[in-house]
Write a structure and sequence with these properties.
Distance between the termini: 9 Å
Structural class: alpha+beta
Shape: globular
Number of strands: 2
Strand content: 15-25%
Radius of gyration: 11 Å
Order of helices and strands: EEH
């Protein structure tokens, strides 16, 4: 997630039960995506953009 007043990104994970956990802050979208790729083996083309949680 990115706030309009900040250039960085926050990572939140949503469990199957709908529980939201804040994982961390990343300086760039690329760094956030690389971390998710390392943790879950999700390639960049599998990401979905969303304007809401």
């Amino acid at each position: 997630m990115q706030y309009t007043t900040d250039s960085g990104f926050y990572r939140f994970d949503i469990s199957q039960a709908g529980e939201i956990s804040e994982i961390g802050y990343f300086e760039t979208e690329k760094l956030a995506m690389e971390e998710v790729n390392r943790e879950f083996q999700v390639s960049l083309d599998e990401w979905e953009a969303s304007n809401t949680i």
